[in-house]
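Ops channel
N.P.: pipeline sanity check, posting one input/output pair.
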């Protein structure tokens, strides 16, 4: 596992396209985006929020 990790880190350092791809993926600029719902302050104060926590 250690050798595989070292190899992957070396590839990331030397291959700029792989580095950019991983950076976009980790920062949320690429891939599946979460669907966010807007909740009004009134709903939160009344306890009528649409979130199921």
């Amino acid at each position: 596992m250690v050798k595989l990790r070292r190899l992957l880190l070396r590839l990331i350092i030397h291959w700029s396209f792989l580095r950019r791809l991983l950076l976009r993926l980790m920062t949320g600029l690429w891939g599946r985006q979460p669907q966010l719902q807007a909740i009004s302050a009134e709903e939160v104060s009344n306890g009528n929020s649409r979130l199921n926590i």
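N.P.: looks fine end to end. The radius of gyration is 20 Å.
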